[in-house]
Protein backbone atom coordinates (compact mmCIF):
# COMPACT_ATOMS: atom_id res chain seq x y z
CA UNK A 1 0.00 0.00 0.00
CA UNK A 2 1.20 3.51 -0.83
CA UNK A 3 -0.08 6.52 1.13
CA UNK A 4 0.66 10.14 0.22
CA UNK A 5 0.34 12.58 3.11
CA UNK A 6 -0.19 16.23 2.17
CA UNK A 7 0.13 19.21 4.53
CA UNK A 8 0.66 22.92 3.86
CA UNK A 9 3.69 23.25 6.14
CA UNK A 10 5.46 21.46 8.98
CA UNK A 11 5.80 24.35 11.41
CA UNK A 12 6.95 23.80 14.99
CA UNK A 13 4.25 21.90 16.84
CA UNK A 14 2.43 18.67 17.47
CA UNK A 15 0.99 18.25 13.97
CA UNK A 16 4.46 18.09 12.40
CA UNK A 17 5.56 15.48 14.93
CA UNK A 18 2.34 13.50 14.38
CA UNK A 19 3.09 13.25 10.66
CA UNK A 20 6.79 12.49 11.04
CA UNK A 21 5.88 9.65 13.43
CA UNK A 22 3.64 8.20 10.71
CA UNK A 23 6.42 8.56 8.14
CA UNK A 24 8.88 6.75 10.41
CA UNK A 25 6.64 3.94 11.63
CA UNK A 26 4.17 3.01 8.86
CA UNK A 27 6.86 1.68 6.45
CA UNK A 28 7.79 -0.88 9.13
CA UNK A 29 4.30 -2.31 8.60
CA UNK A 30 4.49 -2.51 4.82
CA UNK A 31 2.87 0.86 4.06
CA UNK A 32 4.99 3.03 1.78
CA UNK A 33 4.65 6.55 3.12
CA UNK A 34 5.29 9.82 1.29
CA UNK A 35 4.98 13.34 2.73
CA UNK A 36 4.36 16.32 0.43
CA UNK A 37 4.53 19.77 2.01
CA UNK A 38 5.11 23.44 1.33
CA UNK A 39 7.20 25.85 3.35
CA UNK A 40 6.76 27.82 6.56
CA UNK A 41 6.10 31.52 6.08
CA UNK A 42 6.92 34.77 7.86
CA UNK A 43 8.25 34.31 11.39
CA UNK A 44 7.32 30.63 11.57
CA UNK A 45 10.02 27.99 11.99
CA UNK A 46 9.93 24.48 10.55
CA UNK A 47 9.78 21.73 13.16
CA UNK A 48 13.13 20.00 13.54
CA UNK A 49 11.39 16.61 13.17
CA UNK A 50 10.88 17.45 9.48
CA UNK A 51 14.62 17.02 8.96
CA UNK A 52 14.35 13.36 9.90
CA UNK A 53 12.22 12.33 6.88
CA UNK A 54 12.38 12.68 3.10
CA UNK A 55 9.99 15.41 1.97
CA UNK A 56 8.44 16.13 -1.40
CA UNK A 57 8.27 19.91 -1.57
CA UNK A 58 5.33 21.81 -3.05
CA UNK A 59 6.89 25.20 -3.89
CA UNK A 60 3.58 27.09 -4.17
CA UNK A 61 2.00 25.66 -1.00
CA UNK A 62 1.70 27.81 2.13
CA UNK A 63 -0.78 28.34 4.95
CA UNK A 64 -2.53 31.44 3.64
CA UNK A 65 -5.26 31.26 0.99
CA UNK A 66 -3.97 32.62 -2.31
CA UNK A 67 -5.97 31.71 -5.45
CA UNK A 68 -3.01 32.04 -7.82
CA UNK A 69 -0.55 30.13 -5.65
CA UNK A 70 -3.21 27.56 -4.78
CA UNK A 71 -3.78 26.95 -8.50
CA UNK A 72 -0.07 26.30 -8.98
CA UNK A 73 0.02 24.13 -5.86
CA UNK A 74 -2.73 21.96 -7.33
CA UNK A 75 -0.76 21.63 -10.57
CA UNK A 76 2.35 20.65 -8.61
CA UNK A 77 0.37 18.14 -6.57
CA UNK A 78 -1.07 16.59 -9.75
CA UNK A 79 2.49 15.81 -10.83
CA UNK A 80 3.38 14.41 -7.41
CA UNK A 81 0.28 12.18 -7.39
CA UNK A 82 1.10 10.93 -10.89
CA UNK A 83 4.64 10.05 -9.82
CA UNK A 84 3.83 8.49 -6.43
CA UNK A 85 0.71 6.63 -7.62
CA UNK A 86 -0.76 6.40 -4.09
CA UNK A 87 -3.58 4.07 -3.06
CA UNK A 88 -4.74 6.73 -0.57
CA UNK A 89 -4.17 10.47 -0.28
CA UNK A 90 -4.20 11.59 3.35
CA UNK A 91 -4.50 15.35 3.89
CA UNK A 92 -3.82 17.21 7.12
CA UNK A 93 -5.17 20.59 8.29
CA UNK A 94 -7.45 22.94 6.37
CA UNK A 95 -5.23 24.26 3.57
CA UNK A 96 -3.97 20.91 2.27
CA UNK A 97 -7.44 19.43 2.62
CA UNK A 98 -8.85 22.30 0.57
CA UNK A 99 -6.28 22.15 -2.24
CA UNK A 100 -6.57 18.37 -2.67
CA UNK A 101 -10.32 17.93 -2.24
CA UNK A 102 -11.41 20.87 -4.41
CA UNK A 103 -10.48 18.66 -7.36
CA UNK A 104 -11.75 15.11 -7.84
CA UNK A 105 -8.95 12.68 -7.07
CA UNK A 106 -8.32 9.28 -8.66
CA UNK A 107 -8.02 7.54 -5.27
CA UNK A 108 -9.80 7.79 -1.89
CA UNK A 109 -8.96 10.85 0.23
CA UNK A 110 -8.78 10.84 4.04
CA UNK A 111 -8.64 14.17 5.85
CA UNK A 112 -7.39 14.69 9.40
CA UNK A 113 -8.55 17.60 11.53
CA UNK A 114 -5.72 18.31 13.98
CA UNK A 115 -8.12 20.89 15.39
CA UNK A 116 -10.31 23.27 13.44
CA UNK A 117 -10.50 26.94 12.56
CA UNK A 118 -13.98 27.54 14.01
CA UNK A 119 -12.69 29.37 17.11
CA UNK A 120 -9.53 30.81 15.58
CA UNK A 121 -9.58 34.65 15.92
CA UNK A 122 -7.84 34.89 12.55
CA UNK A 123 -10.86 33.25 10.88
CA UNK A 124 -13.76 34.78 12.78
CA UNK A 125 -17.05 36.22 11.53
CA UNK A 126 -17.65 36.01 7.78
CA UNK A 127 -14.43 34.03 7.24
CA UNK A 128 -15.67 31.38 9.67
CA UNK A 129 -18.94 31.02 7.73
CA UNK A 130 -17.03 30.53 4.49
CA UNK A 131 -14.79 27.90 6.08
CA UNK A 132 -17.79 25.99 7.45
CA UNK A 133 -19.43 25.95 4.00
CA UNK A 134 -16.18 24.80 2.39
CA UNK A 135 -15.66 22.06 4.97
CA UNK A 136 -19.22 20.78 4.39
CA UNK A 137 -18.54 20.48 0.66
CA UNK A 138 -15.09 18.98 1.13
CA UNK A 139 -16.39 16.40 3.62
CA UNK A 140 -18.54 14.95 0.83
CA UNK A 141 -15.34 14.21 -1.11
CA UNK A 142 -13.70 12.39 1.81
CA UNK A 143 -13.67 8.64 2.39
CA UNK A 144 -13.06 9.23 6.10
CA UNK A 145 -12.58 12.19 8.43
CA UNK A 146 -10.05 11.72 11.22
CA UNK A 147 -9.99 13.83 14.37
CA UNK A 148 -7.31 13.77 17.03
CA UNK A 149 -9.92 14.19 19.78
CA UNK A 150 -13.58 13.25 20.24
CA UNK A 151 -14.64 16.77 21.13
CA UNK A 152 -13.23 18.04 17.84
CA UNK A 153 -15.48 15.66 15.90
CA UNK A 154 -18.46 16.63 18.07
CA UNK A 155 -17.94 20.32 17.31
CA UNK A 156 -17.58 19.64 13.57
CA UNK A 157 -20.73 17.52 13.51
CA UNK A 158 -22.62 20.32 15.26
CA UNK A 159 -21.74 22.47 12.22
CA UNK A 160 -23.05 19.68 9.94
CA UNK A 161 -19.58 18.95 8.57
CA UNK A 162 -19.62 15.34 7.41
CA UNK A 163 -21.71 12.59 8.99
CA UNK A 164 -21.07 10.55 12.10
CA UNK A 165 -19.97 7.30 10.43
CA UNK A 166 -17.30 9.19 8.48
CA UNK A 167 -15.42 10.10 11.64
CA UNK A 168 -12.56 8.16 13.18
CA UNK A 169 -10.80 9.33 16.35
CA UNK A 170 -7.03 8.76 16.45
CA UNK A 171 -5.21 10.50 19.31
CA UNK A 172 -1.56 11.35 18.72
CA UNK A 173 1.22 9.04 19.78
CA UNK A 174 3.71 11.12 21.71
CA UNK A 175 7.33 10.36 22.56
CA UNK A 176 8.30 11.76 25.98
CA UNK A 177 10.61 14.76 25.96
CA UNK A 178 14.02 14.16 27.52
CA UNK A 179 13.53 16.73 30.28
CA UNK A 180 16.60 18.69 31.33
CA UNK A 181 17.56 18.80 35.04
CA UNK A 182 16.06 21.90 36.65
CA UNK A 183 19.29 23.83 37.27
CA UNK A 184 20.56 23.18 33.74
CA UNK A 185 17.16 24.08 32.26
CA UNK A 186 17.08 27.38 34.17
CA UNK A 187 20.61 28.16 33.00
CA UNK A 188 19.69 27.38 29.36
CA UNK A 189 16.73 29.77 29.63
CA UNK A 190 18.83 32.45 31.39
CA UNK A 191 16.64 32.26 34.49
CA UNK A 192 17.61 32.26 38.16
CA UNK A 193 16.28 29.86 40.76
CA UNK A 194 14.52 31.79 43.52
CA UNK A 195 13.19 28.62 45.13
CA UNK A 196 9.57 29.42 44.24
CA UNK A 197 7.32 27.55 41.80
CA UNK A 198 7.72 28.64 38.18
CA UNK A 199 4.81 28.66 35.72
CA UNK A 200 5.68 27.83 32.09
CA UNK A 201 3.82 28.63 28.86
CA UNK A 202 4.99 27.17 25.54
CA UNK A 203 3.21 27.60 22.19
CA UNK A 204 3.19 29.54 18.96
CA UNK A 205 2.88 33.20 19.90
CA UNK A 206 -0.24 33.76 17.80
CA UNK A 207 -3.84 34.84 18.34
CA UNK A 208 -5.27 31.32 18.59
CA UNK A 209 -2.92 30.54 21.52
CA UNK A 210 -3.85 33.87 23.18
CA UNK A 211 -0.54 34.78 24.86
CA UNK A 212 -2.08 38.09 25.96
CA UNK A 213 -4.42 36.14 28.23
CA UNK A 214 -1.36 34.52 29.82
CA UNK A 215 -0.04 38.01 30.55
CA UNK A 216 -3.36 38.88 32.22
CA UNK A 217 -3.00 35.80 34.43
CA UNK A 218 0.57 36.77 35.33
CA UNK A 219 -0.49 40.33 36.06
CA UNK A 220 -3.04 39.01 38.54
CA UNK A 221 -0.28 37.01 40.29
CA UNK A 222 2.60 39.48 40.76
CA UNK A 223 4.36 37.28 43.34
CA UNK A 224 4.56 34.28 40.96
CA UNK A 225 7.13 33.99 38.18
CA UNK A 226 6.17 33.02 34.65
CA UNK A 227 8.28 32.03 31.64
CA UNK A 228 6.82 32.15 28.11
CA UNK A 229 8.48 30.26 25.25
CA UNK A 230 7.67 30.24 21.55
CA UNK A 231 7.78 32.43 18.47
CA UNK A 232 5.21 34.02 16.22
CA UNK A 233 3.78 37.27 14.93
CA UNK A 234 2.76 38.48 18.42
CA UNK A 235 6.16 37.91 20.04
CA UNK A 236 7.30 41.55 20.08
CA UNK A 237 3.87 42.68 21.30
CA UNK A 238 4.02 40.14 24.12
CA UNK A 239 7.54 41.23 25.09
CA UNK A 240 6.44 44.85 25.21
CA UNK A 241 3.35 44.12 27.33
CA UNK A 242 4.87 41.56 29.71
CA UNK A 243 4.76 42.51 33.41
CA UNK A 244 7.91 42.32 35.51
CA UNK A 245 7.22 38.75 36.71
CA UNK A 246 7.19 37.32 33.15
CA UNK A 247 10.28 36.25 31.21
CA UNK A 248 9.58 36.02 27.47
CA UNK A 249 12.36 33.86 26.02
CA UNK A 250 11.24 33.29 22.41
CA UNK A 251 11.91 29.94 20.78
CA UNK A 252 13.16 27.42 23.34
CA UNK A 253 13.52 23.67 23.74
CA UNK A 254 10.56 21.93 25.36
CA UNK A 255 13.10 19.92 27.38
CA UNK A 256 14.27 23.16 29.02
CA UNK A 257 10.80 24.63 29.54
CA UNK A 258 9.49 21.43 31.17
CA UNK A 259 12.67 21.08 33.19
CA UNK A 260 12.48 24.61 34.56
CA UNK A 261 8.71 24.92 35.15
CA UNK A 262 6.69 23.39 37.98
CA UNK A 263 3.31 24.12 36.39
CA UNK A 264 2.41 24.37 32.69
CA UNK A 265 -0.14 26.93 31.54
CA UNK A 266 -2.19 26.92 28.32
CA UNK A 267 -4.45 29.86 27.41
CA UNK A 268 -5.62 28.83 23.93
CA UNK A 269 -8.77 29.95 22.16
CA UNK A 270 -8.88 26.71 20.21
CA UNK A 271 -7.03 23.38 20.21
CA UNK A 272 -7.23 19.97 18.64
CA UNK A 273 -5.45 17.41 20.80
CA UNK A 274 -2.57 19.58 22.08
CA UNK A 275 0.64 17.57 21.87
CA UNK A 276 2.58 20.08 24.00
CA UNK A 277 0.20 19.41 26.89
CA UNK A 278 0.57 15.64 26.42
CA UNK A 279 4.34 16.13 26.51
CA UNK A 280 3.94 18.17 29.69
CA UNK A 281 1.91 15.38 31.29
CA UNK A 282 4.49 12.77 30.19
CA UNK A 283 7.09 14.99 31.88
CA UNK A 284 5.09 14.75 35.10
CA UNK A 285 3.91 18.36 35.08
CA UNK A 286 0.42 19.43 36.18
CA UNK A 287 -1.28 21.59 33.55
CA UNK A 288 -3.76 24.45 33.89
CA UNK A 289 -5.54 24.96 30.56
CA UNK A 290 -8.59 26.56 29.00
CA UNK A 291 -11.39 24.14 28.19
CA UNK A 292 -11.14 24.18 24.40
CA UNK A 293 -11.02 21.44 21.78
CA UNK A 294 -9.95 18.13 23.27
CA UNK A 295 -7.97 19.60 26.16
CA UNK A 296 -10.29 17.85 28.62
CA UNK A 297 -9.33 14.52 27.01
CA UNK A 298 -5.66 15.21 27.77
CA UNK A 299 -6.12 16.64 31.28
CA UNK A 300 -8.27 14.85 33.83
CA UNK A 301 -9.74 17.83 35.66
CA UNK A 302 -8.52 18.16 39.27
CA UNK A 303 -6.61 14.87 38.93
CA UNK A 304 -3.80 15.49 36.41
CA UNK A 305 -4.32 19.24 36.17
CA UNK A 306 -7.06 21.83 36.03
CA UNK A 307 -9.32 22.62 33.08
CA UNK A 308 -10.92 26.04 33.38
CA UNK A 309 -12.93 28.62 31.44
CA UNK A 310 -11.28 31.42 29.47
CA UNK A 311 -11.62 34.06 32.18
CA UNK A 312 -8.18 35.27 33.28
CA UNK A 313 -9.32 35.46 36.92
CA UNK A 314 -10.51 31.84 36.88
CA UNK A 315 -7.25 30.72 35.31
CA UNK A 316 -5.21 32.67 37.88
CA UNK A 317 -7.17 31.05 40.74
CA UNK A 318 -6.45 27.60 39.32
CA UNK A 319 -2.75 28.35 38.91
CA UNK A 320 -2.54 29.81 42.41
CA UNK A 321 -4.07 26.67 43.94
CA UNK A 322 -1.15 24.67 42.50
CA UNK A 323 1.45 27.28 43.39
CA UNK A 324 0.36 27.05 47.04
CA UNK A 325 0.45 23.23 47.26
CA UNK A 326 3.59 21.30 46.40
CA UNK A 327 1.84 18.07 47.44
CA UNK A 328 -0.98 18.63 44.93
CA UNK A 329 1.52 19.45 42.16
CA UNK A 330 3.46 16.26 42.81
CA UNK A 331 0.38 14.03 43.05
CA UNK A 332 -1.08 15.47 39.85
CA UNK A 333 2.28 15.11 38.09
CA UNK A 334 2.60 11.42 38.97
CA UNK A 335 -0.92 10.60 37.79
CA UNK A 336 -0.48 12.75 34.67
CA UNK A 337 2.60 10.79 33.60
CA UNK A 338 0.98 7.38 34.14
CA UNK A 339 -2.23 8.34 32.33
CA UNK A 340 -0.45 9.92 29.35
CA UNK A 341 1.78 6.87 28.94
CA UNK A 342 -1.31 4.65 28.77
CA UNK A 343 -3.40 6.79 26.40
CA UNK A 344 -0.97 8.39 23.97
CA UNK A 345 1.44 5.69 22.83
CA UNK A 346 2.92 5.70 19.34
CA UNK A 347 1.94 2.04 18.86
CA UNK A 348 -1.74 2.85 19.40
CA UNK A 349 -1.62 5.69 16.88
CA UNK A 350 0.15 3.59 14.23
CA UNK A 351 -2.15 0.57 14.69
CA UNK A 352 -5.21 2.82 14.31
CA UNK A 353 -3.90 4.24 11.01
CA UNK A 354 -3.11 0.78 9.66
CA UNK A 355 -6.66 -0.40 10.43
CA UNK A 356 -8.09 2.76 8.86
CA UNK A 357 -6.13 2.32 5.63
CA UNK A 358 -6.99 -1.38 5.39
CA UNK A 359 -10.69 -0.56 5.81
CA UNK A 360 -10.50 1.60 2.67
CA UNK A 361 -8.07 -0.32 0.43
CA UNK A 362 -9.22 -3.93 0.45
Main attributes?
alpha/beta, Rossmann fold, 2 domains, six-stranded parallel sheet, globular
Describe this structure in words.
This protein folds into 2 domains: 2-173 and 345-360, 3-Layer(aba) Sandwich (Rossmann fold); 182-343, Rossmann fold (3-Layer(aba) Sandwich), CATH 3.40.50. Helices cover 41% and strands 16% of the residues. The protein has helices at residues 14-25, 67-84, 93-101, 126-139, 150-158, 182-188, 211-219, 235-241, 254-260, 275-282, 295-298, 312-323, 326-343, 346-360, and strands at residues 2-7, 32-37, 55-57, 88-92, 109-113, 144-147, 167-169, 198-202, 225-229, 246-250, 263-266, 287-290, 305-308. α3 (93-101) links the parallel β4 (88-92) and β5. α6 (182-188) packs across α9 (254-260) and α7 packs across α12 (312-323). It is globular and about 60 Å long. The relative contact order is 0.13. The model has no long low-confidence stretch (mean pLDDT 93).
